[in-house]
Design goal:
Elements lengths: L1 E5 L3 E2 L9 E2 L2 E5 L2 E6 L11 E4 L4 E2 L15 H10 L1
Parallel strand pairs: 1-6, 2-7
Antiparallel strand pairs: 1-4, 2-3, 4-5
Amino acid sequence: MRTLVHDARLVAPMDDARTRLPGGWVLVEDDGIVAVGPPPVPWTIGAERRIDARGKVVLPGLVTSPAARPRPPTSTCSRAARSG
């Protein structure tokens, strides 16, 4: 399923260039970000679902930060640390 998040107050992709896209949009397909861009949304983009993000800040890519990654249980870490 394709979802278009459009007309955001600000889209701030988590990239090294610290890009900021006032009025931007994000296209998500299934579980992945397919495209990010400045306004206006290209007329060629089709989506089954549209989310009006007016007044919202959208941070695509934030959930892929190291803090969001699953961690092994503490007991597993402790055993690994003890075994060297």
